[in-house]
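haha ok so turns out i had the wrong file open the whole time. this is the CORRECT one, sorry everyone. sequence first:
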Amino acid sequence: MTAKPPLQNKQSEKLNKVVDNALNQILGQEATQIIYDYLENNHSIQRHEIALKLDSFNHALKEFLGTGAIVIEKVIQQSLELDELDENRGVDFSEQHKILKLA
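then structure:
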């Protein structure tokens, strides 16, 4: 078993937190939990794995919310862009921007 580099772990944790915040902000806590349950039960994606399974997450979110996933996509994108500006330490979130390809 190989450990992930600390930077990748931090990026994954940050992306998972951004997704969680976006879902809670838009849908509220109960609906967010319903989505997490759906992801886990129907797509084998646990909450802490979203950053590692972006393509599956994108598909599942669009499947569950339809065009409503676009709203979440935009909030996540804005949050990632703000985080990039705030940190401005060369942390590359370009790989995580795959999450924004829901449409």
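The radius of gyration is 13 Å.
again sry for the mixup
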